[in-house]
Amino acid sequence: MPHHRTLKMRLTTLGIGALMPWAVWAVGLDYLSGADNMLKYAALPVTSVDSAQPQAMITLSKDHTLFFKAYNDFTDLNGDGVIETTYNHSFIYYGYFDSFKCYSYSSDRFVPANRTEDKYCNNQWSGNFLNWASMTRIDVVRKILFGGARSIDDSTAAGGGDQNLTVLQRTYLPNDAHSFAKYYNGPDIAKLTPFTDISTNKVDKRENGITLCNTTVDILTFSKEMSPCRIFALGLSEE
Question: Which secondary-structure segment (H or E) carries 110?
């Protein structure tokens, strides 16, 4: 009978960088005229005059699919002609976590512990792996536009014990089809998670690997019996 490991997902990280569809229009450069127009063009930035105000438009859908998982495991992410059906360590997954940092879980949130050059960690969570496992599309959009949704954003020197602390929190996921699970059974699992005794090659495949489930539950009434989605680390037990 598999044992259950339960984990609440709150995210803390620094960093940014990703792609999304957008379009930019530049308008009216009337001051570029006459024989000296190239001289003016070289001397002045193209957006430095009132008649050439930069404008940007973001073409973004506004529907419930933004709350689906960001990495769906049936997409060719790196353009090599092979579909990524699970975590691919060579790919840099974008999200609230820094892919080149290791994280520990403390005080109900993931906290950056140290940097890593190869995205692998020792007895800690890999930020790259956590991005693959937990990010939704709207999280990625929010990270691009304004750095992510903050549950704590205190950069002042006064007021409580969370001074100079920023905590990013994954979006609300209702307990329906928007909740999702990510399964991984790679040989490097001990370098991506703090678990060193997860089986990966047992005859009974149900006892191998780790499944990370993502949903939102009421922490006031949370329990292992009530939770519609959990982390399953088969072969492990933590009360």
Answer: strand 109-115
